[in-house]
Write a structure and sequence with these properties.
- This protein is mainly α and 146 residues long.
- It has 5 helices and no strands.
- The two termini are 17 Å apart.
- The chain is elongated and about 70 Å long.
Length: 146
């Protein structure tokens, strides 16, 4: 596996991000087009199935979106617990309550040598997740992010 850093740490799954959303978009476009044609030609009973396909297409968008959002939310909770434990193991204290979830997620890439200082800076200077990641000198890879 290649070394992870700020420029390449994002998780991208082509089958999910390209193929799945392209298929869903195709279903929505074709079903809206079919619905429009049936409506325009006055084909009365023919609106139910195209309308159902439109609804299914939008349902698929919601399912794909929320499946990803729920997985990330669950992983964020695990990251918060892990980073809180790591901070406690190093300092004997819990992470500052003022840290936002995005900041904690960004801090997971910092090695133990940089972690505490960056956590303090994040609170004091209100650093964004991007700022925290850019401040990391020795990147600790996370290849398991959803």
């Amino acid at each position: 596996m290649q070394e992870q850093n700020f420029k390449n740490h994002s998780r991208f799954v082509p089958l999910f991000h390209y193929v799945t959303f392209s298929l869903i978009l195709f279903i929505i476009v074709v079903s809206i087009y079919k619905f429009y044609l049936n409506y325009k030609t006055g084909y009365g009973g023919g609106l139910i199935y195209p309308g159902l396909l439109v609804a299914i297409g939008f349902s698929l968008v919601l399912i794909a979106w929320f499946a990803r959002a729920f997985a990330i939310k669950a992983q964020d909770r695990a990251i918060r617990a892990e980073e809180n434990l790591r901070y406690f193991a190093i300092t004997g204290k819990l992470l500052d309550d003022k840290l936002r979830m995005g900041q904690i997620v960004a801090l997971r890439f910092a090695t133990n040598n940089e972690f505490v200082e960056l956590a303090h800076r994040a609170v004091k200077e209100n650093l964004s997740a991007k700022d925290i990641k850019m401040a990391i000198k020795n990147w600790k890879a996370d290849h398991h992010r959803a």
